[in-house]
Design brief:
Layout lengths: L1 E6 L4 E8 L2 E9 L25 H13 L5 E5 L6 E8 L3 H16 L5 E9 L3 E9 L1 H11 L3 E6 L1 H8 L1 H4 L5 E7 L3 E7 L4 E8 L10 H29 L5 E7 L5 H12 L2 E4 L14 H12 L8 H4 L6 H38 L8 H19 L5 H10 L5 E10 L2 E11 L2 H17 L4 E3 L4 E7 L2 E12 L7
Parallel strand pairs: 1-4, 4-8, 9-12, 12-13
Antiparallel strand pairs: 1-2, 2-3, 5-7, 6-7, 9-10, 10-11, 14-15, 15-18, 16-18, 17-18
Helix pairs in contact: 4-8, 10-11
Length: 490
């Protein structure tokens, strides 16, 4: 299954197309160059620079699909800061799960949303209190992004802050005092000061734009020097702000990353200006500085693979067939009315058949010729009683399988058979082979789905086989379950 990981902050497109742990496509471009009117904007940071018009993301995704030449199954997005609402909360010292509940209730009261998607990051820790950075994405924004992705299923949405913390996770254990991560992009600088357990400071700064677009080669050289000076000035200011607020936690090391081409030059200049060790943060040890533009995106990929992603996607929107509460209630009510009408019609027909049987028995002595008709009516009555008394409904079973099957598991087939009064359902599924441990986990989750179902009773251990399709191995699993009748499934 091919996944698209997309970072569109500052209107600079960074995209990775992955298949498992393999990167199949690496794309980098300026989103302004993709405008339909052919304009070539510089993409500088403004109040609404990170917001998108309807259809812009759809066109971008179509371009990446065409460039990659492969079908995309799921989409993952690092959302621009303009769509994220941030706030800090100072609470008594609590476990992170309890603090998340309190902050979520506060955000729900302020935003008037029933289930706001909130993620928190630990910050300053004092003797009796803890400060938390809360990030929240409104549901209307998530609905807009899901519409822009179209047929591509938007599986997860996260922020740059969450992704950069995942990217530096391998080096956090070695932090003794504090490290600074400066992500320098075309129009913004994101500064993160972190310790081995908390986020000490986070600032997002705008790089001043050069308004003169008509420049010679000499002017361009001067403009580049002015830009580096502006970046150094911003970094010096934010570093002074950190040192003033944290005099007991000195800066140990600085990491540089981002899409700005001046990062290698900044590395040596910043070392002299701040008198600390400076290094370029690459995806892996030994890689070139050119890959530092994808560090945040690779942190997002790593969190997905490890299952630690801070996902802001609303569960109702993540479902394949999302329903609002009112719409779902209306559908369930309509289904209930149809079921009541069906039962009423069945009971009415049974009552009519009973009257016919009684009349046939009363006249049996006088009208022997009607004996065969009475027997047929009695047989029909018995069949109806069996259907209504031992009825199997397949819609709840299909719904349960669709909602509970693990990701990556394909349902290959269902075969229903009836022996005497018992119904049997043969369920066939398959999934990609991912090693003995991964395969065992998926099979265990499948067995748990069957064992916990109120409609199925597993009769024997699953039949497991491994098949090869080209270079990929797939695991085929077959379950044979007894189907509980509708009146016995509680």
């Amino acid at each position: 299954m091919a996944d698209l990981f997309l970072d569109i902050r500052d209107r600079q497109v960074r995209a990775l197309v992955t298949d498992g742990e393999d990167v199949r496509l690496r794309h980098s471009s300026a989103l302004a160059a993709l405008a339909a009117d052919g304009s070539r904007e510089t993409g500088r940071h403004e109040a609404q620079a990170d917001r998108f018009q309807a259809g812009e993301l759809s066109a971008l995704i179509s371009l990446i699909k065409a460039e990659g030449g492969t079908a995309l199954d799921r989409g993952h997005l690092i959302i621009p800061p303009a769509y994220v609402i941030r706030s800090t909360h100072k609470l008594p010292r609590l476990p992170q799960s309890e603090a998340l509940k309190l902050i979520t209730r506060k955000v729900a009261a302020e935003s008037r949303e029933d289930e706001p998607q909130v993620q928190i990051i630990p910050m300053d820790l004092e003797q009796n209190s803890q400060t938390w950075l809360a990030e929240y994405v409104p549901t209307d924004t998530l609905r807009f992004l899901k519409k822009e992705f179209g047929s591509l299923r938007l599986r997860s949405v996260t922020t740059a802050t969450q992704s950069i913390l995942q990217a530096i996770e391998p080096i956090r254990e070695a932090i003794f005092n504090a490290h600074a991560i400066f992500e320098v992009n075309a129009g913004t600088i994101d500064a993160y000061y972190v310790s081995n357990s908390s986020l000490l400071l986070h600032e997002s700064l705008s790089i001043p734009a050069d308004d003169d677009e008509r420049q010679t080669n000499q002017d361009e050289s001067r403009s580049q020097k002015r830009r580096i000076f502006s970046i150094l000035d911003l970094l010096y200011r934010v570093n002074s702000q950190y040192l003033a607020a944290n005099p007991m936690t000195p800066l140990q090391k600085v990491w540089l990353c981002g899409s700005d081409p001046a990062i290698p030059e900044l590395s040596s200049t910043l070392m002299d200006a701040m008198d600390v060790e400076v290094a370029i943060l690459c995806e892996q040890v030994g890689e070139t500085a050119e890959t530092c533009a994808f560090v945040t995106l690779k942190g997002f990929v790593r969190s997905q693979q490890k299952g630690t992603c801070a996902n802001f996607m609303h569960p109702d929107l993540a479902r394949r067939f999302p329903l609002r509460k009112k719409t779902g209630l209306f559908i369930y009510l309509a289904t209930l009315i149809m079921a009541i009408a069906l039962v009423w019609q069945t009971e009415l027909r049974i009552s009519r058949l009973k009257k016919q049987v009684a009349a046939a028995k009363k006249n049996q002595a006088q009208q022997k010729g009607q004996a065969a008709a009475a027997a047929a009516i009695a047989k029909n009555l018995e069949n109806l009683r069996q259907l209504t008394g031992n009825q199997v409904t397949f819609y709840p079973i299909l719904r349960e399988l669709a909602m509970n099957l693990p990701d990556g598991v394909d349902l290959e087939g269902l075969a229903y058979s009836r022996k005497e009064a018992l119904g049997q359902l043969e369920i066939s599924a398959s999934f990609p082979h991912s090693g003995d441990l991964g395969t065992s986990r998926i099979i265990s989750r499948l067995m748990a789905v069957m064992d916990n179902s109120p409609f199925l009773a597993r009769q024997q251990e699953p039949q497991i086989s491994i098949t090869a399709s080209g270079t990929q191995k797939r695991v085929a699993v077959k379950f044979i379950c007894e189907v509980r009748p509708h009146d016995q499934a509680k």
